[in-house]
Amino acid sequence: MQRAVEPPESKSLPRDEADQETRFSADGGESARKARIGVIVLCAAGIAMSLTHTLIVPLIPMLPTMLDTSAGNASWAVTVTMAVGAVATPIVGRLGDMYGKRRLLLLCIASVGVGSLVCALSPSLPLFLAGRGLQGLGVAFVSVGISVMREFVPSASLGAAVGMMSSSMAVGGALGLPFAAFLAETFGWRALFWVSAAGSVACFVGIHALIVPSRIRTGGRFDLIGALGLGTVLVLLLLPLSKGLDWGWTRPITLSLFGLSVLTFLGWVAYERRRRNPLLDLRIASRRVIVLANVAGLMSGFAFYGMELAPIQMLMAPTSTPHGLGASMLTAGLLMAPSGLVAFVSSNVGARMVTSLGARRTLVSAGSLLFIALSAMLIALAVEWEFPTVYLVGITCLVGASVGITYATLPTLIMEATPVEQTGEANGLNALMRIIGLATSAAVVGMILAHNISPVPGSALSVPSASGYIWATATALGASVVAVIAAILLPRYQRT
After folding, report:
1. Pair 144, 93: CB distance under 8 Å
2. Cβ partners under 8 Å of residue 379, min gap 6
3. What CA–CA distances, in Å, run from 23 to 16, 29, 154, 194, 223?
4. CA distances to 53, 182, 269, 425, 432 from 144, in Å
């Protein structure tokens, strides 16, 4: 028997949420005040956990020397965090629904803290990779944080709170590069992980003190075989996506892993459909609203990360190269940071748009803004206009605004179409789709930029060519088109 429950046709609140609204009205606003503080703490912790995505980026050129290894082996320090995060996100969401969301939030934070300590003390690559793997569990924090908000935030404020929490992924990613570059240049690379460990302790204390234990739990038995199967599928998919550029996209090992991921996925689906308590309720996951929301999340994540990879290389490329702006790593990171801040601010705008326009129109508007920004970027590149730095920063900010609105809308759509006791599972799946979008963008856009290069005059170095930037932007533009189409296909009745 499946656990699927159709969403109610009426707008009446479930009993637990109705009781919650009564409590907010009866205590003179004390619960509402605590809820606001809880949202602030969750968002701050979400940003801190999301920093693990980009924390290591400034260290990549130094990793072979730091850890006495090859460049190929050192690249696993990035891959392992992404892979663990992708595998953990839906599993942690399901466990949060079963055993309590606060408990899993604390587990994620503790894992990041321990992983940070391991990295800070690592003398060699294997131990460093173990620490980075533990940090990967922090990727799952945001989706569980979104779900737990439904239990203590009043319905009138839930949209804005969810939007801010959802956009913390983009904020953490954007702020991570200048933050990490400054610490590494000023205090050394180990300082990054000591600061991360200290931040994890602060987040743990704040969540434990201000977020009450979950009252709504599904219970049941955890689907261990389903979790192992999903983990296998994701590893078989993400491994060639991450390493295909190094191995070669047409090499037998790359193609074999892609093929195995498809076969394993089909077997996993067949197994999950026969389970009484599956890891993921495929009936809910296959609902039209959920499928389209996941497509929109995946494609928005792809376009957003593509417009992180290409612009920062343009900023750091010498002015003697096509579209090079000659900024240092720290300056380039600071110039990219506003896109994350705009994403955070625009999440509140997205929540208000959902209330007034509905989720479908809001997603169409966000996708259209993304399309316009990328079209402006592509046209400027195609006509070989030597645009100023402010133009590029403006484009990335528009992309950030679009993603902030999108990320604010998607959880609302999902929570409308999902029973309250399964929101962690459903939001975990949507967060997984965004991670796959990021991973796919890193592979595809990275491949485009790496295979379309031009030499730096007077140096042995090479940077992406003008055609590389054009094709990278065109690929992101194509993703934005798919995101708009997915939004248009959403049912018209979906409103908050």
Report:
1. yes
2. none
3. 11, 9, 10, 41, 35
4. 17, 30, 23, 8, 12
77 φ, ψ (degrees, to nearest 5)? -65, -30
Residue 73 is encoded by which pair of tokens? 């082996």
Task: Return the half-sphere exposure (C-beta side, CA atoms, 13 A cut-off) of residue 388.
Answer: 2
Structure tokens at 493: 């009745």
pLDDT tens for the chain, 496 residues long, are: 444 443 433 334 444 444 454 444 455 467 677 778 888 888 888 888 888 767 776 676 677 777 787 766 777 777 788 778 878 888 888 888 888 888 999 999 999 999 999 999 988 888 999 999 999 888 888 888 887 887 778 777 777 787 778 777 767 777 777 888 788 878 888 888 999 999 999 999 999 988 888 776 666 678 888 888 888 988 888 788 767 767 888 889 999 999 999 999 999 989 988 887 777 777 777 888 888 988 998 999 899 888 877 888 888 888 888 888 888 877 887 888 888 788 878 887 887 888 888 888 999 999 999 999 999 999 999 988 888 889 999 999 999 899 889 988 888 788 777 776 666 667 777 777 887 887 778 778 877 887 787 887 777 677 788 888 999 999 999 999 999 999 999 887 544 4
| Beta carbons of 173 and 50 less than 8 angstroms apart | yes
CA 265 from chain center: how many Å? 22
For 131, counting Cβ atoms within 10 Å of its Cβ (0-12 exposed, 13-18 middle, 19+ buried), the class is buried
